[in-house]
Write a structure and sequence with these properties.
By secondary structure, the chain is mostly helical. The chain folds into two domains: 245 residues; 135 residues, abc type-2 transporter like fold, CATH 3.40.1710. It is built from 16 helices and four strands. A four-stranded mixed sheet has the order 2-1-3-4, with helices on both faces. It is elongated. The two termini are 30 Å apart. About 3% of the residues have low confidence.
Length: 403
């Protein structure tokens, strides 16, 4: 025990001696989370993923009702300008790439709707602005579908009341009332994208990036410790420790304890930062965070042991650790939301610490439902076992080659 305490004391002196690196490990997480939340926060909070664009409307009827329809289009936030032109001019604007699409309203569309036989309009798209053209097409399809469903509803009311023996005057009044309600419902629609939130599953950008990036800094905190292991191996210290009765695990355990201590300090500083920057965070219980943090720390420690077994020098330790941590950060959704990444990244994220740690922390931030925490903790423990087994296999292969 005294030998282990001596090794731990010596390793702690080496870490504390480099004050700049230690302060960087402690302060950098707060700075990076603040920068990410400030720079990428608007992207998370926006519901539209396309910049506003312009379209043209070819109104062949030019009536009051088509004017109301065009006025409704002007209320859509995603549309920048709406040009009223003829069809030839609209095609010229598309060729010049000045508009994304053109909506062609046919003649006598109002009369056709009154006859309950609506004529079909057209959308002329721009091949260079395919996404925007599809959005305009979808708006037109939704509009025509709304008209068709409304007419079907009016037809159903008419048939039901007619066969039920209602007075013709009453049937007429009910049709008029239903038609007005339908028109008001359609004309008050001013959104293309509508967000629906269930419960309290909503976090601020600062909380989102704190949950996503904390695991990255926990893994980075172990890099100085595993570099010390690589240096001891290069200098022959590890070989002498392995030959000692206690074995070399005391040195490894000492480094792991130091990395856990640094990670705990990072966790506390980030929690204090969230308490200052987020009003809702101060009302959340700290209990759900503790098991997620412990499991994340165990998985990060196992990952650092795997890196230490693979690396043969301090330089290769830096290279392997930094590249693998950055790869995990990208594939695991720490930098960019996982839902916006390709399917390949979503599949690879299952094997990353980042995904399960961020998922556990986000569930803990929601406070009301902690049912997802055991799943995240179990996944982190399984990853830790996987990394430890991999480290043991690499260590045995190295010993066989050395023999």
């Amino acid at each position: 025990m005294s030998a282990f305490l001596s090794i731990l004391k010596n390793d702690a002196k080496i870490i504390i001696r480099d004050v700049k690196a230690l302060l960087l490990l402690l302060v950098m997480p707060v700075l990076v989370i603040g920068i990410f939340a400030k720079a990428l926060g608007p992207m998370l909070e926006r519901t539209a993923f396309v910049e506003p664009f312009s379209i043209a409307v070819v109104d062949k009827e030019d009536s009051v009702w088509t004017g109301v329809l065009i006025a409704q289009l002007r209320n859509l936030d995603i549309l920048d300008n709406i040009y009223r032109t003829d069809e030839d001019e609209a095609r010229e604007l598309i060729e010049k790439n000045e508009i994304a699409a053109a909506i062609v309203i046919p003649e006598n569309i109002t009369d056709s709707v009154e006859r309950w036989e609506p004529e079909q309009g057209r959308v002329i798209g721009n091949s260079l602005l395919h996404l925007q053209s599809q959005l305009v097409k979808n708006v037109a399809v939704v509009g025509s579908t709304s008209v068709s469903s409304g007419l079907a509803a009016l037809n159903a009311i008419n048939d039901y009341e007619y066969w039920a023996g209602f007075d013709p005057g009453q049937v007429y009044q009910d049709i008029i009332q239903a038609n007005e309600e339908f028109i008001n419902t359609v004309l008050t629609r001013k959104e293309i994208f509508r967000e629906t939130k269930q419960g309290r599953y909503s976090v601020s950008p600062v909380e989102h990036y704190a949950a996503s990036l904390l695991v990255v800094f926990i893994m980075f905190s172990s890099v100085p410790c595993i570099k010390m292991l690589a240096q001891e191996r290069t200098l022959g210290i590890s070989a002498r420790l392995n030959a000692a009765p206690a074995g070399g695990w005391q040195s490894i355990s000492s480094k792991l304890i130091l990395s856990v201590g640094i990670s705990t300090a990072q966790f506390l500083l980030i929690g204090f930062f969230l308490k200052l920057s987020s009003k809702s965070f101060g009302r959340i219980s700290a209990g759900p965070f503790i098991p997620v943090f412990l499991c994340t720390t165990i998985a990060a420690a196992a990952f650092s042991v795997l890196i230490a077994s693979l690396a043969s020098s301090a330089a290769t330790t830096d290279l392997i650790a930094n590249l693998s941590i950055l790869l995990m950060a990208i594939a695991g959704g720490s930098v960019y939301p996982l839902t916006s990444l390709p399917d390949l990244c979503k599949d690879l994220s299952v094997l990353t610490i980042n995904r399960w740690s961020a998922q556990g922390f986000l569930v803990a931030l929601n406070d009301e439902n902690t049912g997802g925490i055991p799943e995240s903790c179990l996944a982190l423990i399984l990853l830790a076992l996987f990394y430890f087994i991999g480290a043991l296999l690499v260590h045995r292969l190295r010993r066989r080659r050395a023999a």
